[in-house]
């Protein structure tokens, strides 16, 4: 089973919008055993859409298009789809009732008339009700092939994919969805791609037939993706387990999680296990570390809060950093980072705390303390506070991202010492 | 001048990695007058890469590929490119010296041998030195057409695009780069797509020939993109100005900025103008608001810091929220939001402050206070504190994003009252 994704929208071709939809759809299709052969991104241009649809429809079992279904004049996709399949647009009464009800639920009694057009669909298509917006998804099935078009707004598209599209595809292609693809990703932090590859060794020595290993570097670490294709789920899982075991035997200490884990989630899970709280004191990251933690649901059992001390004055007044530390060592120093961590830990009464202070740039660097220099401290009740110095390059947002991630990694390693033998 | 982007990598087709490179490259090409006709994403698969390269090379003046240039076994792009152009790989000594020097600069004296392969390039290609990594960019020019391949790691790709690729393309295609494309985007917040379209009116009444207007909804607002294609820069700019003026006359109050502005940047600029400081008190957003502010460089003149009070106990101890407020009204209430804002403002001695308290879910909602309910308060010295209640749906991260953005919007509107007539 093979699919192509058509992402439609000028905004994607001028770089205004990042194509997050294609990856979200790919992930969901893979999960039910449909591989994605290609993503084609084209503009709101009839000729280009028709050309791409022709190629995609010829070479795949499933085609999923997104974008251009909105109520405004620049949304042409539905008309082009109708033209491609030689269908006329007809009013779908159920959809119209749903659109009207949506406006009422927001307290808008007089619906803008342009929205009536949302209920016009190509004849013979099935409208997929969109509970997150006004444009329905549209599905067409012919000779064992399925075409689907969804609105481009990510949270509408995601809702339609999971609630309508996947169940429909599983029904329509029941017989062919036997072959399984397993992807499993091990997430590492704090090690470069080629050093990691040397540690893990030559893939020929441990990869089975039909299995691949990919190295995917990103801001704070390298992801290792194991892929196994086979006829049954049983075989693939065993093969993936064996490869994972080999990799872990070579690089366990750098691996913080799997698949969609985030470092913050892993840290929160470990904190839950030992029933400990953590607090934060942030300077150059200005809330990014805390924000990563608070993305995790159910956080309140381990995180009471933090202090953002962007100014030195706040480091003094809120965190109790001594004036002589700031004078003698400066705000970007082991001494200041440690004092920040200890200050917030004592104030908030937590077992652990993290502090970050550094130079995110573009200004403020010097020869001795260049842009990208960051001190991270980890304090723990009844233990000596530790601090580490990093050099994270010279791009403000990369420096901030790496600082927050490496702080999380510091506490993860500490928590693992406590949970030795526990699954991370 | 027309280009196609080829994004190569299995990780893009299984949804593991979002294709941020394609939009970054599109934006940079547009800026020098090269339109992108299509982005094709394919896997690390020789047959698929060759098929995509053939189509792209036939239909475009410029083809830019990314991905698969790393040092590990799964990186096949360079070999496939060499095969497509019928070139053999040869050692580029300059590149090898550069790769060795990079390892030395990180204090690694024994370079992993696999990295020697990074210096092998197809004969007749130009190696573009990569100061951010070990894989050079590769450029090939033939019969007025240019092919380029870059590493897929975003910050390496971006560095190579701006430092090497754009200057090379401008040199190689000097004659053809006359025709200009202008894109200009007005950014709105706090208004839905169809209501905005009704306010702005029928595009036929105000769009000139060759001009388009696109509505692009995202989490916290709708972007309005004006595009004008013409022969000279002068004409396009005038036409874009006229369209912008029309839109502003209809929807000025919702427009917070242009193009790559962020709400945080706009707020920081306005604060600079009136020389005022702001502080933050965050509960459900847990640092996201402060993190958005601290993404902006040069922030320290207006932002001393903030308090993340995820627990009620911290709301009391750090922000002075009265126990009776929490008991009588609860943490998600106008009273608590106002007390949080006033507490942090007084503590940090700032003129303004913002506070956010709400239910980000998935748990913690009730019939009276459902998930998605958020109170945002704005305090200002010598003024009554205001608070507003929002209902932001039921997805944790969308609730958090919208909360942070609408908080920024509240202070933006307040600052505009002070700067009436000033350009936002």
Distinctive features:
424 residues, five-stranded mixed beta sheet, 14 helices, 3 domains, globular, homodimer, Molybdenum Cofactor Biosythetic Enzyme, Chain A, Maf protein, Alpha-Beta Plaits, six-stranded mixed beta sheet, 17 strands
Write the layout of secondary structure elements.
The structure is a homodimer of 424-residue chains.
Chain A: E1 2-8, H1 10-13, H2 20-31, E2 35-42, H3 46-59, E3 62-66, H4 77-84, E4 89-91, H5 93-105, E5 120-122, E6 126-128, E7 137-142, E8 145-150, H6 154-172, E9 180-188, H7 193-200, E10 211-218, E11 221-230, H8 233-251, E12 255-258, H9 263-274, E13 278-282, H10 288-294, E14 305-309, H11 312-319, H12 323-328, H13 334-348, E15 352-358, E16 373-380, E17 386-391, H14 396-418
Parallel strand pairs in A: 1-2, 1-3, 3-8, 13-14, 13-15
Antiparallel strand pairs in A: 4-5, 6-7, 7-8, 9-11, 9-12, 10-11, 15-16, 16-17
Helix pairs in contact in A: 2-6, 3-4, 9-14
Description:
2 copies of one chain form a homodimer. By secondary structure, chain A is α/β, with parallel strands linked by helices. Chain A folds into 3 domains: 2-172, MoaB/Mog-like domain (Molybdenum Cofactor Biosythetic Enzyme, Chain A, 3-Layer(aba) Sandwich); 180-258, 2-Layer Sandwich (Alpha-Beta Plaits), CATH 3.30.70.2860; 263-418, CinA-like (Maf protein), CATH 3.90.950.20. Chain A is 40% helix and 24% strand. Chain A is built from 14 helices and 17 strands. Chain A has helices at 10-13, 20-31, 46-59, 77-84, 93-105, 154-172, 193-200, 233-251, 263-274, 288-294, 312-319, 323-328, 334-348, 396-418, and strands at 2-8, 35-42, 62-66, 89-91, 120-122, 126-128, 137-142, 145-150, 180-188, 211-218, 221-230, 255-258, 278-282, 305-309, 352-358, 373-380, 386-391. Chain A has a 6-stranded mixed sheet with strand order 2-1-3-8-7-6, sandwiched between helices. Chain A has a 5-stranded mixed sheet with strand order 14-13-15-16-17, sandwiched between helices. In chain A, helix 2 runs parallel beside helix 6, helix 3 packs across helix 4 (77-84) and helix 9 packs parallel to helix 14. Chain A is globular and about 80 Å long. The two termini of chain A are 35 Å apart. The model of chain A has no long low-confidence stretch (mean pLDDT 91). Chains A and B meet through helix 1, helix 2, strand 2, helix 7 and strand 10 of A and helix 1, helix 2, strand 2, helix 7 and strand 10 of B.
